[in-house]
Amino acid sequence: MLRQALPQITRRVLRQPITATIQPYRTISTSRYSSTDTETISTNSRVGKPDIPLRAGNIPTVTSDENKTSIAWPDGRATTFDNYFLFDHCRCSKCFHGQTKQRLKTLSEIPDDIHPIAVEVDKTGVHLTWSTSDAHKSSFPLEFLRRSAYDPPLASYRDDKESRILWNSKISQSPPTIRYDEIMNTEKNGQTSGRAILRLLNRVHDFGFCFVQDVPATGEQTKELIEKVAPIRNTHYGGFWQFTADLSHGDLAYSNEGLPAHTDTTYFSDPAGLQIFHMLSHPSPPGTGGTTLLVDGFYTASLLSTLYPTSYSLLSRLIVPAHASGTEGTMLRPPLSQPALRHDEKGQLIQLRWNNEDRGVLGQGWTPDEVKGWYQAARRYDELNRSEDAEYWVQLQPGTMLVIDNWRVMHGRSAFTGSRTMCGAYVGADDWLSRRAALTKQYEIRKKSILDDDWSLGW
Ligand SMILES: C[N+](C)(C)CCCC[C@H](N)C(=O)O
Ligand SMILES: O=C(O)CCC(=O)C(=O)O
């Protein structure tokens, strides 16, 4: 579960590295934001009282009228569902395709005055007989009703996807790593080791990055490895790419300039989920530099929300245009710009979009105070990201592939000289998260969802 263990910040003025007392590998909530917050950001505030798991014998009391169905839970709380909602979520074979997991019933097939004519409750759930001509029957597991409650929401079930391990520069002591042969070894049935791929993806989820060691330093075998993990996403850079300082693309990555900590493809409506790098060569000497930088953007965001909640709020609210315009024939601009810090419906930080080089023209629709406030907020966040506490510098070598959650962890590099060739690929966020969820289900390595198959879908 999530623990409130934010670092004791010993200095408010961030002139010196933050002597955060945070230890790496602490599971800490990512900061929370709700659009009503103007001054302070509640971190870790949970909805309602801590959840009290249903004891087997505890059966709620259920009553219905022509509009709604109310549930009085044994722990004293009451929730209400619109009858239309319940009928719409029926999972019987007439309403829901057992194999495709898709809804069969259309909205027009739900009578406006739908309501239960009979209600039964037992430990398997709530069973309703509806006012339809065929006396349609629906059954809802009690867990589903607790988890989907919205009037009011009950303390929500935080599945393991909410827990991340925030880290600072001390991660260098033992960074998350997995070996190439673990992934490439086939299981008894000749299948690629799904368990090892799940271990890799769980580490990427938990830490925001993971190294894969002993990868043959060829583009071909790197591509083969990536494709075993998840499908490669094609972009204007191609699918699997190799790059060097030849400005073959109109982007600084194709130069020998240093690049500050950033996330990639902020100019896409859907930024790449994984950024995967593998250095193929950089003879040094004579080459110099080209060291890789990693910063946990969720760690520094949690510091920002603690030190400067107003700044956190501004970076969470004000949209920032981004673009890629340096290559002939490419004029990428997302039709809907987004804030730097984006949150899910639970107010959990879910996506960081941070790229100073690709940032467009700010301020459209902002007030003068918001322009000033955003720059103050951005400079504060930038200072946290550049702190000795946050920066993890690592010299990549041929043979070590780096998988980064591009929605969370920023990467960068120091300027370099000499001939340096990197290869890698992007993977879509939905694609790697789907792969991880499907492997989790297949191997149930992590806590199984609290609901069985038909009810744990589409949240
Ligand atoms: C990774 N590869 C070299 C192919 C492309 C790099 C793109 C860099 C771009 N400024 C961005 O942030 O998206
Ligand atoms: O060359 C590197 O090490 C990183 C380049 C980079 O930041 C990028 O491709 O986005």
UniProtKB/TrEMBL annotation:
<comment type="function">
    <text>Converts trimethyllysine (TML) into hydroxytrimethyllysine (HTML).</text>
</comment>
<keyword id="KW-0479">Metal-binding</keyword>
<dbReference type="Pfam" id="PF06155">
    <property type="entry name" value="GBBH-like_N"/>
</dbReference>
<dbReference type="InterPro" id="IPR010376">
    <property type="entry name" value="GBBH-like_N"/>
</dbReference>
<dbReference type="InterPro" id="IPR003819">
    <property type="entry name" value="TauD/TfdA-like"/>
</dbReference>
<dbReference type="InterPro" id="IPR012776">
    <property type="entry name" value="Trimethyllysine_dOase"/>
</dbReference>
<dbReference type="Pfam" id="PF02668">
    <property type="entry name" value="TauD"/>
</dbReference>
<dbReference type="InterPro" id="IPR050411">
    <property type="entry name" value="AlphaKG_dependent_hydroxylases"/>
</dbReference>
<comment type="similarity">
    <text>Belongs to the gamma-BBH/TMLD family.</text>
</comment>
<protein>
    <recommendedName>
        <fullName>trimethyllysine dioxygenase</fullName>
        <ecNumber>1.14.11.8</ecNumber>
    </recommendedName>
</protein>
<keyword id="KW-0408">Iron</keyword>
<dbReference type="InterPro" id="IPR042098">
    <property type="entry name" value="TauD-like_sf"/>
</dbReference>
<comment type="pathway">
    <text>Amine and polyamine biosynthesis; carnitine biosynthesis.</text>
</comment>
<feature type="domain" description="Gamma-butyrobetaine hydroxylase-like N-terminal">
    <location>
        <begin position="63"/>
        <end position="146"/>
    </location>
</feature>
<feature type="domain" description="TauD/TfdA-like">
    <location>
        <begin position="198"/>
        <end position="426"/>
    </location>
</feature>
<dbReference type="GO" id="GO:0050353">
    <property type="term" value="F:trimethyllysine dioxygenase activity"/>
</dbReference>
<dbReference type="GO" id="GO:0005506">
    <property type="term" value="F:iron ion binding"/>
</dbReference>
<dbReference type="InterPro" id="IPR038492">
    <property type="entry name" value="GBBH-like_N_sf"/>
</dbReference>
<feature type="region of interest" description="Disordered">
    <location>
        <begin position="33"/>
        <end position="66"/>
    </location>
</feature>
<keyword id="KW-0124">Carnitine biosynthesis</keyword>
<dbReference type="GO" id="GO:0005739">
    <property type="term" value="C:mitochondrion"/>
</dbReference>
<keyword id="KW-0560">Oxidoreductase</keyword>
<keyword id="KW-0223">Dioxygenase</keyword>
<dbReference type="GO" id="GO:0045329">
    <property type="term" value="P:carnitine biosynthetic process"/>
</dbReference>
